Fold each of these.
Amino acid sequence: MQIIIPIVLIGFGLVAIFYLRTKTQNSTTEIKFMQTKKISELKDMFDQMDANGLGNDYREFVELKGNIVSDNLVETPFSNRKVAYCESELAQVTESREQYRDNNGNMQTRVTKQENTISNEKTSQEISIKDGSSEEAVVVEINATGCDLDIPKTFDRFEPKNNLSNYRYFNSFVWNRYGAETLGFKMTESTIDANQSLYIIGEAFRVGNVIHVGKPQDSKKPFIVTTKSEEDLINSSNRKSMMYLVGGIVAILVGIVMLINLI
């Protein structure tokens, strides 16, 4: 049974080095060598495909940069800000106490804190971008399966239960106690602001007369939507690749040492 742990460590190390790191490096290479496509150029390409009778079937893997355009902003649930897009999470923080005897026979109290996720929500409305090269707006399928969404956490707060009256969200809110004392709630929001600049890599296609960008049909190609700049994204990917390499090597070495000690 003891031999399983070192084997798992070695296996994890190999996966980190040869799969996760390689996948991250391929994505970084894709970002580095892609040329940014202007929306006007994309529109002209679809118009040309229309002339050839292929407009609705044409798909192109593209890199886009633009700013959010939205006539219908949404209100965040906790901070009550107007934004173009929001992902929010609410967790109930509880505390339970348990009496037990220690090794010397003395009574002790064990305190356990837990976070129980109550809700995890995303706004459902579409978001679109423009880049100034055209009046055409491109719909970004941000809620589609396979979207690698990288946006900042703009609200992260724990509030004791006695302070909940400060939030409209809790005016008609009822929660379960999970058999433990409720200390309060942890609230987080990740958002995209109105007029926020976005960097996008994905596949452009048309739905009716509207250009969309979403997950490529080729599963090996990424669909990335981020508020980071291209340079920041490349630097972040390089750090992640190095983390997989170092972590993989450490896991393999620890696994080998454990195997040797078992022999």
Amino acid sequence: MIEGKLIILAGGISSRMKKPAELKENVENRLIEDANQKSKSMIGVGQNYRPFLDYLLYNARESGYKDILIIIGEKDDSIRKYYGEKDSGNEFYGLNISYAIQKIPRGKEKPIGTADALFQGLLAKSEWSGKRFTVCNSDNLYSQNALTLMLKEEYKNAMIDYDRDSLEFELDRISKFAVTFKDEENYLLDILEKPTENEIEKSRSKDGIIGVSMNIFSLQYNMVFPFLEKVPYHPVRKEKELPIAVKMLANEFPKSVFAYPLAEHVPDLTVKNDILIVKKYLENHFSNFKL
């Protein structure tokens, strides 16, 4: 089995999670404290108060990944305190964990997006030049199936294209997810963030499926690096976004990003009302969980 390389994006400031919320159910005080003080992925939603990130790392290890680079923020040391203080070479249940810090540019109050996070991560891992890696969010629990697909070497670059109807979220939330446009061979043409209803319908395939991106990609270091460097700021959010860089890559090199169709749910830990939903999901699907 290929020993894969995985980059996990955890350098954001979790602003939506830290917002005050009118909770639908009672949540333990320590979990609320986690949500207010730590990276989202370090909220102890698992059994025996395990952080959410443990479950993503478990799925990664079981899928064949060995080298893990976690992009962390300047102002949050919760991940480093848990997984090891060294910049690299932290052993964690068979995984080799290292870190890169997503620095906040001078004059900015927060990190400037996922494309910048990956750019800074690749700068810290120049020895990965010429190689392929998977990159994903830290606040989504991607399945072993999805992570394994990203290890396949049939295509230069790839992504998971989720069937929107398989995602177990409220429609209002799902309607904001980025939709994908592919050619007849399922190569990526476009990723459209915050689509209108008309754009969503235009993205529907001949089979009636609306594909959405959940920000998991397999990328060639040397192919994506130039686009991470020159991706523009989003005009509204003022961030450099990874999906835009991937779209630029796909447009510059047609048939270079394959979209794997997949119909399954992806647990998401974005706001405080997600905490108990994710906690119950883990209880139901990882009852015998062991790292």
Amino acid sequence: MNVHHLELFYYVATHGGVSAAARQMPYGIQQPAISAQILQLEDVLGVTLYQRRPFQLTREGQLLYDHIAPFFKGLGDVADRIRGGGETRLRIAAPEIVQREYLPELCARMQRRVEGFHFTLTDGRQQQIEQFVAAQEIDIGLSTLTDKPPPNVETRELLRLPMCLLVPAKSSLKSAAQLWEKERIETPLIALTASDPLVREFQSGLRQHGVEWITSLEVGSLDTVARYVAGGFGIGLSLQMPRVEAPAGVRVLPLDDFPTLAFGVMWIGRLSPLGEAFLEEAQAIAKGLR
């Protein structure tokens, strides 16, 4: 068997398809080339390794994946140890707003604490970060937390974040309670996707108030929520985050009687000493923010 073909199969199986594998490969390779080489591997073995649509490993594919996965998963760590940097590098994932507002300080503290500390950074929302952690594609994720993380994923809460509504600065609304008094809220709601914990908890709070208000504009980040509110496109659902000011043209309406969201750290397995140090510094910053 061609080792390069096995590597391509590992990425396809890990990421659930050829297109996803092409995005995650550490070197450039097009989808047609991956598909062609996987077909060559299947010809050599005389079996089909996975069903294409929907993606699912066959029995033979799962057997092959279980055999080769430990080798390919461990290559990065071996390379780091050979270079002498395996104990100073962390793979981190966090939403854009966390990357911008909090990670620079956290990583600066780590550089002062650990000589030679360096890191890689991946963007993602809560569900994506959970998937990255579960697949061991990152070492530590920073995100809102759910009550039931994926199997084997460990979490540590750092902060509780209150929900809020964002309205245009010129809006006549003085409090969120004024909205609940209306028979029907006609103003568009701007929020993250329905699967995000923030949106799920907000909808739960609305039901307790006997209110129905479905998202009209689904966007990819809290920054984008604020930008659309500032543009006069509706009312936004967001979080009150320490040290983060509302942008120009936007006012904050607190949602004091709604649930707060847990924000924290997630990882899988046992944290390395470097991971433990990162967690300690994150907890120290969170304590100051509280």
